[in-house]
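User: Fold this one for me? It's Aminotransferase.
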Amino acid sequence: MEEFHKVRRLPPYVFEQVNRLKASARAAGADIIDLGMGNPDLPTPQSIVDKLCEVVQDPRTHRYSSSKGIPGLRRAQAGYYARRFGVKLNPETEVVATLGSKEGFANMAQAITAPGDVILCPNPTYPIHAFGFLMAGGVIRSMSVEPDDSFFPPLERAVKHSIPKPLALVINYPSNPTAHVATLDFYKEIIAFARKHEIIVLSDLAYSEIYFDGAPPPSVLQVPGAKDVAVEFTSMSKTFSMPGWRMGFAVGNERLISALARVKSYLDYGAFTPIQVAATHALNGDGKDIEEVRSIYHKRRDVMVESFGKAGWDVAPPAATMFAWAKIPEPFQALGSLEFSKLLVEKADVAVAPGIGFGEHGDQHVRIALVENEHRIRQAARNLKRFFASADVATDNIVALNAHR
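Assistant: Here's what I get for Aminotransferase.
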C-alpha cells in the first residue's frame, strides 16, 4: 500500500533500529546501559511536584486551559528572560507556552511555511528542526553547525542561489547534538544578516541552563533589533528535569508569535492547568534547582570523559548540554554511526545515538547522553574497555559488515 505524501517525505527513523536491538538484548537478560535518548533520569524537584499536587485538588483546574498558556505562566517566562538575559518581553503578545520546544517548532513550521519555501537548517541538528518544515511542505538547505566565521559564506551562497529566497534560518546553541555554544557576537552577525535579507530566525535555546565552562550561553534576543526577525524556543524538560510534563515556550517577534498562537488555538487547549501553575512556580523560584541539575550533569560529564578516555575512547568534553558529540574511534569509522551504535549494544551492552540520525553530516559521530548516574557511566566505560580490547572481535565485525555492504 502506498504511503501518505507527508509520511513519504520523512526518512527512516534510524534510532528505531538501535531501539529494537536494545529491547531484544534486554529481553534476553542483558543489562543495557542506555546513553542514547536524551531522557533525563533526574526527578523533578519536589517543590514543583508539591505545587502540582496542591493545585490539582481544585476541580476548577480540571477544565480546558489556554492554548497560549495561562497569564501567570507567560508573565513568569517574561520574568525569567528579564533576569537571565536582560530581555524585556510583553507576556501578552511576545510569549506563548508550548507543549515542549518540539511542538513549538513543529507548529511554527505549520504557521509560516508555504509549499516549496526554503529553510536554512544546520546539519547535524535535532531532527524536528528539519522534519517539522518537511512535513509542512518546505525544502531544507543544510548549513554548517559551527558558530564561527565558517558559518557565513554558505549562508551568503544560500541567499544568492536559493529560489525562492530562504524564508527562515534555524539556529540551535548550545547545540543538540554537537554541544557547540554561540557567542553574543555571533548572534549579532546572524541578526544583521537576517534583517538585511528579511529572513526569519528561529533559535532553539533548550539547553540554556545546562552549561559547564565559561559564561552562561546568551540568547539571540539580547541583540538589539532581534525581535524584528527572531523567535526563540526554550524548554523546561532539561532545566528542571520535567521532560514528561511537556512544557516549553516560544518568545520574540510579535507577528510570528501571533501566527503560532493562532495555529495552536485550532490544535490544542494547552497543557493541563496544574502543570502550568507548577511550571510558573518553577520559573519564579530562586534558581537553586537549576544549579543542582547543572552540577549533576557537570560531574557526569567529567566522569564520562575521564573513564571513557581510560577505556580507549577520547571524547572531547562538551562545554554545555547533557550530551557529548563523540567521534567514532578510528578502527570503527568505516562502519558509520548506525552500525557502530548497533555493535556497541551487541558487544558492550552500551547504547548511544547514531550521529546519522541528526543528519548525514553526523555519520562519523555518535551522541552520548549523560542520563545514567556516575556508577553506571563507569560501568559503561569498563564494558567498552573490554570490547575495545577484543581486537579480533572488532576486526571480524568490521570485515563482515563491510563485506555485507
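One thing worth pointing out: The CA atoms of residues 33 and 379 lie 8 Å apart.
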